[in-house]
Every structure is written in structure tokens, then in C-alpha cells.
Amino acid sequence: MSITPYLTLAAILFCIGLYGALSKKNAIIVLLSIELMLNAVNLNLIAFAKYGPKPGLAGQIFSLFNITVAAAEVAVGIAILINLYRNRGTTDVTDMDTMKR
Amino acid sequence: MEALRLQLSDLQHLIPELTLIVTALLAALLDLALPRKVSRSFSAWLTLLGIVVAICFTALELNPEEPIQLLAQSYRIDDFASLLKLVILVGTGLVVFMSLGSAARDDIHHVGEYYYLFLPAALGGMIMASSGDLITLYVGLELLSITSYVLVAMKKKSTESNEGAFKYIVLGGISSAIILYGMSFLYGISGSTNLLAINSALAGSIDDVKGLVYLAFFLLLAGFGFKIAAAPFHTWAPDVYQGAPTPVTAFLAVVSKGAGFAILFRVMYWVFGSLTLMGTDLQKDALLSLSVLAAISMIAGNAMALRQHNVKRLLAYSGIANAGYLLVPIATHFSLVHYANYSEFLFYLIAYLFMNIGAFAVLMIVQRSSGNEELRGFAGLYYRARGRPQRPCCSSFRWPASRSRRDFSESCSSSWARCRRNSIGSAR
Amino acid sequence: MLDRLIGFLSSGENLVFFVFSLVAICGAIFMISLTRVVHMVMALALTFLSLGGIYITLGAEFVGWVQVLIYAGAITILMIFGIMMTRHRGEAETEPQRPWHNGLLLVGAIVLFGILFYVIQNATITPQSAPVDPKDNTLQIGQLLFNQYVIPFEIMSVLLTVAFIGAIVVAKREED
Amino acid sequence: MANDFTSYAWLVPLFPLLAFLVLIAAGRQLREAGAYISIVAMLASFVLALLIFFERLGHTTDYTWNQLKWLTIGDFQLNMGFEVTNLNALMLVIVTLVSLLVNIYSKGYMHGDERVNVFFSYIQLFSFAMLGLVISVNVLELYIFWELVGVCSFLLVGFWYFKPEARAAAKKAFIVTRVGDVGLFLGMLLLFWYMPGHSLDFSAIHNAFSQGKIDPSIATWIAILVFVGAMGKSGQFPLHTWLPDAMEGPTPISALIHAATMVAAGVYLVARTMDIFQASPDAMLVVAYVGGFTAIFAATIGTAQNDIKRVLAYSTVSQLGYMMMALGLGAATAGIFHLFTHAFFKALLFLGAGSVIHAVHTQDIREMGGLAGKMKITAWTFAIGALALSGIVPLSGFWSKDAILSAAFEHNQLLFWVGLIAAFFTAFYMARLFFLVFAGKPRSDAHAHESPAPFTFPLVVLAVLAVIAGFVFTPFNGWLGHWLGDHAEAETANWTVMILSTLAGLLGIGLGYVMYGKNSVSRDIVAGNAPWLYTLVYRKYYIDELYDVVFVRGLRLIGKAFELFDIYIVDGIVRLCSAAVVGIGRLGLRLQNGQVQTYGLATLLGLLILALALAGRRFFHLG
Known about the structure:
Chain A is mainly alpha-helical. Helix content of chain A is 75%, strand content 0%.
């Protein structure tokens, strides 16, 4: 089996994640969409780790680091969101425009 | 496999980083252990102490006989890295110093954390400056970024601070994903995460995967462009700068941006621009893209700054324009004769560090007395505070002044000359 | 066309991939199109799970299980937790009407995908050696992590500490 | 060889410069003191110049100092410095002396003017520039001072800027001389290009040209171009038109700049670069014919003018033509000698005219008359000046004019007759001027009276000089020629020439006396019998009108076109740029709408556009 289907799947997921991150109004879903983008990247890395020019474990290790970082990022993101909700009473991304111009 | 083990003796090269980690842990533990009544300013002094010690250790590493490399080039301690570490540490130190006393007024509730969180942020920047491996690079970048998200959100009662932090984390997350996507393609092309290995793989055979190489380049360009706030990837900067506590804004404008440049420099130079790729289409296109980015940043940043009334946003736009200037030495063609463009870059970065921190320090003082961040708060400053207005003047005039200083102007003009030669060459 | 599809699906690995990828894409699309936030999160959890499955078929058992644990487990739970903390009723979302924004975004995403697709289809990646299927995936990853990748690993520990402290500090309710 | 004073020659221009700086800095506070500062500074310069002159009396070797490094272009190095030759020393004395006298005179003449200190500061600047020009060591240095002199001329002609005529005259003076300066500049470039070692030093020029190292055709070009510069400054036909108009300036300025010194700079330049001209017979011929034509051409115009200063101005043009003619004929000493004597008597005449104008408040000679009784000193000194100009034995003008005419007699008979006729006309218009102004009955009811001492003192000094200055170089005493190093000069007295020139002068005076003194011949004899001729001369041969049609209108059309270009294209681009900046700023700020997703979208679209534009062209082979 070649690598192309994996890469294509990753590209589809990446684009959907990007679309979600930039179009959804709920802040949690925006964060979640970013996780989808990171997952697409992990798929890429693991596929390359098996079918790439030099099969090895580097890709898998890279993706492990990604997963960890993503978890930390989500934790901080949710924390900020909770605090924001406490102050503004909304999780609507489109409401966050007190600073402009 | 055995050769790639970190020896105990290698740890001596990591002492500056270890110092920061130890200080941060110490500060965190003390913060937990001491009762709430104790003033948290000890945290600031401890942080400063750690930074000063780290500066000393870093200075000792300057000018090694030959660059030290650990774990198959994945961690390099060369002069570029050491100098950038010094810039980062000095910048962080100044920011901590600046926030002494202002932290309580800025309704930051967790003053202890606020201070010692600067340490891991600086550590992330230092890792970025030294790393020669995509994984190390990315981890350092994320350490800096995530710490910055937290620092921006430190004014917990302020809606603007929260909102800025959330915008920062959303856009930062997207840009991280974009960078990672680009890195994954680099890994896919070369089968390695080491920058030098990637470079030699690119030099070997890129025709089969030319598209992937370009794709990776542009994804990385966008991601790093976001981190350094270069137009058109700059949009987050004004809001985040405005929302963050002023010292944190200074940190973002100086340290974070400097570290972003470090990583950009490492990747662009080692992967896409090194001698092995000299004269190839790929290198020409890479440098051209950087030049275009530099030009857009300079124009857009300065043009938008013209119509801005909030000083922090104004400084954000100025930071965008300065990102363009800083991109120039990276974007220029280099040759055997002039291999190290980073001297110009570092020179400008150092000047930029001091003048920006100076500007933010004055902004803090004015902010305190006028109660807002609008430009009109500065009106009549000459009469209100004799002696003080020289400082913003000095720091803002350092822009042109540093450019006109002899060696810098020479290097700048040579950069320009090379830039033009480069563009003529690619036109041919 | 159909012959090729059948030929493709006749291999076991391909069939597994086909099923998992179908589930992953469906989950992602449902996340976009569903109206209730909890449903969206669950749909994406499906995607995460199926991705974990794909990782395992790719010979990355450890990463696959980590994926299931962290994404499908921890992160999804964290998200639901976040929803609970910020939103009390689970009413339906009404997406904002921004024709220009959405139109441009759609065009942008499609163009981006077009570029990615074009590039991926035109790239020929030739492995210099046959895919290895290591016997002890987890052991080898552990060895690498503590030798070659020890520096990022240690930095990661700092990062997790920072995120831990930061999340607590930011999310903590202030007494005053 | 003692060079005690010569080595300090650089101080000569420095005194006026210091005075200029003081006057400019102190401005109005000085009031009357400004004049004294100027006079003292000029006196210091004059004394030093005189000392240098006496020190050089026995010498023939030049003193050169050019150690001031100015420019280094590759191997080429341009040094600045100063040089004192005998010619320079003579010029220093002339310039400082006339300038000193004019300063004294101006103290009286400009009394009561609000901007008197500005006036004096301009004079000091001019003196500095003129003296710097004289001691310049190379052509570039000379050119710098040359332009500075032009600027001062512009400032001083337009000193009374509230008069539209003065403004127009200043502009005209500047523009017309600039036309000549372009020629000089081109000549200088050619010189730079072809000189061995690209040296522009006068001594190097002397060596290169006298040893024939330069191709003669190149020498011709250089000489002609340098001469074009001299034509502009010295008012030679066809670039003479600015000089009469320049009389709109204050009269002391007319005496100093437009009679004695600056207009002589052209003659000086040609004399200084004589080696170039001598390398090219064609160029010499051009110089001689242009000079001769200017001499007679301007003299005829002078006969029909009614403005006292304009008559003198055309006379100046004519006399400058004489000098040029002498130089073109190879009689450098004669030309310089005439410059020397002319400086005194023409300055005298102008200052006398100024005295008259000061007394009667008009410049129209038809409204004057009978002033001899009321203004004795002015009348006498004016008479001496007029006689000297007319070339009457034994006044200075006779000797210098005789030297030129005898040179012409030997080398070119045609020019000799031209010069002789010009001499006749000169005597005629001077007689006309004198009799109309000083003889007869007053034609207006102005109560004229003699001018005060600051007026008369310079007049007397100059009158004395006008009488005696000629004896340094007569057919019986060739000292000046030897001293200037011109050994080719004939010293034998040419009686034919002497008698003919005296006759021409007497004839002109006689005719003037008959027509304007005794009124025994109708003044309108020409105007009545040949009105076209009178009108032609009166309207100065319609040169100004010709220029107006040919150059000014044409240029104005071109200028109009350029103005349109400027308004719509250049300004348009400028406006476009500023609008673009504002537009980018506005667009960029509109982007900052506070919506995080808009920011992300901008990033995405920016990435796509960048990637498609930069990589796409290579990938899809679009260009």
C-alpha cells in the first residue's frame, strides 16, 4: 500500500479542522478543531514513519510529543476560556471583539 | 545508538538552561510553601537572580573553540545561539525588572507565578535558539508559546486580557498546527528530524518531491511569520499586545519575537538556504519569499501605525514593521564571502530590544499617570515630566540612529546590495 | 473505477484503512454540521478513535494507544468538562451569518486542499528500505526517548508543569 | 624669494567672509556699525593684497599651495588651495581697492535703507567669492566661486525686490549667466576627461597645453566652451542682455559687480586659461571676433539710450568686448591692462552717476542738465572718467585702448577698424552723456547739490587712479608686460595707431559737443532722417525681443507642458503614493475588527496568495 491515501486523508482532516476553527462560533469547538488539525499532522508523521524514505521511529516520537503538547495547550485554552466565561458570560467567539482598530 | 546518549559531561553545556529550570522549580515550591501573607516580591528577585546567573553561564560559553553539539546535532551551542540566549535573557530580565511593583497595581492576582513563569518562557526561547532538530525546536517553541498564553491571561479580572489570551491561543494553536504540518512534510521528505540531515536530503534529490518541499516551506513560512508577527500573518499582534499586561507585551514584542527569529533563522538557513543548496531554484524562491514578506511587513506595519491612537497597538504595528526590517538580513543572499548574515540581524535585534523595552517602560509610567493607553496621554509630557521625555525620544530615535551607525549602515547597505543582486539574478 | 476500488479493498490493510478513514472523515464533517456542542465533541471523539486505529495498522501501537487514551479519553473529557463549566443548557447552536467570511473561508479551505491534493498526488516517495515492523514498538520508543530525545523529553516535563500551573492559576476562582 | 605675505594670501578672502558671517549673525542690531565692519574688513584685505602685490613686484614664479584634500575618487585626488601669480596679485589689488571704495561709497548711498546690513553682508559675500575666484588653484575651485559670485550678483541686483523690474532683472541676470555657466561646466568636464592625470590645476593645464599634450581639436572645444562661460559672465554678445537690465540694482553694486569686478571675471578666466586658447587658433579667432563685434555693437546701442546707468552699462559691455578682442588677438597683457584701467574709470563713472542720481532722483538723462555748477566734484571726476574712457591722452584709458588697437593693427586690420569705430562711438556717447547731464540748463526743478564726503572721497581716489593708472604700461614703459610674463608684447610706439585713436576720440567728443553741448546740429538728425535706424539702435537691435520670441516663448511652452506633467503625472504619483499608504493603513485597520476568526482567515488567505504567487509561477510554469 502506498502512502498517498494516508496523506490525502490527513489533508482532508487538516482542511476540515481549519474550516472548523475559523467558522464555528463556540470557543470549545474552535479549540477542538485545532486538535483535529494536530491529529492530521500526527497521521502524516506516522504514515511517513512507515512508508517514508527512511522508515523509523522518529515520526512516531514526534507525534508523541505533539500529542503531549496538544494536551497541554488544550488545558491552558480551556482554563482561559473558563476565566473568560466568568468575566463575560459567553463562549461565543464572535462576541470577543472588545478590542478593535 | 550508543553514541546518541547524553553523557554526564555534556550537562555542563546545559548549565544555563538547568539554572532556569532549577530557579523556576524553587520559586514554584517556595510560592506554594510560604504563607499568603508573605509578599511575593521575593519571587521577582529570585527570578532575576536566576536570570543573572544564567546570563553569566551563557557568557562563559561564548566564543567556543568549535561549536558544541549534543545528540547528533540536535542541540547546538554556537555563537549565534549564545548571543541570542543573551538577548533573550537580558530582555526577560529587563521585563521582570520593569514589572517589579507594577504587577500588584495591574491587578495581577498571582504575582508569584507571574514572575517565575517568565523563566520557562525564556527557557523555551533558549531551546529554540540552540536546537538543530525539529522536535527540540517544536518543543521549545511550544514551551515559549504556552507560557506566553498564560502570561497574557494573567490580568484575570480584565476582559481584554482574557480575550487577548484566547485570541492568542486560538491563532497560536492554528499556527503551531501549520508549522507542524510543514515539519511533517520535511520529515517525510528526508526521513529525519535533524535539520542538517533534511538539508542534505533536499540537496540530494528534490525533483520527485519538489511540491512537498515548497509546500513545507510555505507552511513553515506562514507559521514562523505568525510567531514573529510579520504581515500578512500579523493580525493577532495588536489585540494581544493591547490585552496583555504591559510588561508581558514588552516580553512578546522583544523576547518572543527574537526567539521566533532564531527559529526562522535556523530553519531557513540550515534547511533551505545553506551552502549545499546554493544557487538552486529552491533557495532563490525561498529568499525571494522572505524578501516579499519583509517588504509587506514594513509597508503594512508602518502604514497601519499611522492611523493608530492606542499606544500599545501602535507599538504592535511598529513591531510588525520591525519584523520586516529584521527579515531583511535573513532574506538576503549570502555567499562564501559573506556567510554570516546573522551579525547584522543580531545587531538590529539588540538595538530593537533596548529601544522597545525603553518605550514600554515609558508607556507604563504614562499609563499609570494618565490612566489610559491612548496616544493623547503623551501630550505635553515635556512639560509634565521634564527629564523623562528624553527616554521615549531616545528609544524611538534609536531606530534611525542605529541604522545610521557606521557598521550597521554598512552591513545594511551590503544587505541591500545583495538583496538587489539577488532580485536581479532571479529576474534573469 | 469500481474494479480498482474492489482491488483496493480486497487487501486487509486497505479495507481497515478505508473503514477507519471513512469514520474519521464522517466524524469531522459531523463536527462541522451538528448543532449541539456535546454532539460535536462526541463526533470528533469518533474521529480521534478511528485515527488511533489507523495508527495501529501503521505499526505504531504505542502511539495508537496514546491517541486513544489522550485524545479520545482525556481531551474529549476535558472539552465536555469545559462545556459543563461554561454552558448550562445544551441548546442548539445557531451559527453566525457571515456570508463574506464563510464564503472566503470555504474558498480558502478548498484552495488549500486543492494545493495539498495536487502536491501529494504528484509526489513520489520511494522508501530506501522496506517498511520495518518492529517487534517491540514500545520498548524502542522508550529507549529513543531516554537517549536521543532526552532533551526535548525533559523540556516537555517543564512544559507540562508550566501548563499545569498556568491552567490552575488562570482557571482558579478568585476569592475577592 | 620671500613669500612672507604671499603665503597668507588665503587671508584676503577670509576677512570679507568673517565680516559676512558677523553681519548675517548680528543682523539688524548692528545698525550703522555694519558699514564700518565692512569697511574695516575690506581695508584689511586691501592692505594685505597691497603687501602681496609689492612683495611680488620682483618675482615671476608663482606661489602655489594646494594641500587641502577635497575629493578622492579612485586614484584621482582633487586638492584645493590657493595660488598667487602676478596676474592674481594684480587682480587682488583691483578687487579689494574697488570693493573698499564701493563700501565707503555705499555707506553714504545706502544710508537710511532698512536692510543696509543685509546689503553690506551681500557685498562682503561677493568680495569673498570674487577674491576666492581670483586665487583659486584649480578650475573646479574657480567654478565654485564663479557660481557663488553669480548668486551674489543675483541677490544684489534683486536687492530692492519690491520693484518688479529688479526682480525680473535679477532672474534674467541669473538665468542668462547660467547659460554661459553650462558651457564652462561642460568645458571643465572635457578638461577633466582629457587632462593627463585628470588634473584641473591651472599649473597642470599650463604645462599640458603649452607642451601640446592635448589634441588641438579637443583644445578648440574646451576653449570655446570655457569662452561660453566667460561670455555669460562678461556680457559678450549674444549673452550680453542681462547686464544692462542688471542696472536695476543699487548703483554701488553696478560699479562694483557690473563694471569693475565680476564682469571682468570672464576676461580673467580667459586670461588665466590662455594656454588652452593659444593651443587653438580657431578659438582665438572666435574670441577676437566676438569681442570685436560686442565692442562696436554695444557702443552703437549706447548712443541712443536715455538712462544714465544703461548708457554706462552698454559702455561696459563694449569695453569688455575690447578686452576679449585683445585676448583673442593674443595680446593678453593689453587685455588685462584694459581691465585694470577700466576697473577704475568705469567704477568712477558709475559712482559719479550714483552721485547724480542721488542728487536728482532720476536716471533719465533727458531730465538732467546743468549739474556741473551744483556738483563740482562729481562733474570734474565724471569728466575725468569720461575722458579716460574716450581714450584721451594721457589718461589711463588712452594707453590701454592704444595697446589693444596696436595689437589689432598688427594682427588683424579688420578688427583694428572695428575697434577704432567703436572708440569713436564710445567718445560720442560719453560726450552726449556728459553734456546732457552736466552742461546746459536744468531740465527739471530738482534742487541738486553736491553729495557728502562718503560719495566724493571714492570719486576723487578713483579719478586720480583713472589719470595715472595708465602709466604702468605704455609704449615707452613695458613694465606690466614683463611683470605679467608676456614677452611677446610689442613695446615700440605705434604712432599711426596713437594718432588715429586720438582722432577718433576727439571726433566723437566733438560731434557730441556739437550736437548736445552747443545744440548747433539737430539731435534728431538721425531720428529724423532714418527713423528706422534710430529705432533699431534705441531698441537695442531687438535682441531682447528676438530672445523673447525664440527662447522665452518656446521655453515657456515647454515649461507649460512640463508643468502639466508635473501637476498630473508627478504630483499624481505622489498623491497616489500617499493615498496608497493611507489606503493600506485603512484597509489593514479594517481587518482588525476584533474577530479572531477574521484574523485566522486573513492568515490563511495571505498564505495561499503568497504561495500561489511565489511558488506557483515556478510550479505551473506561468512565467
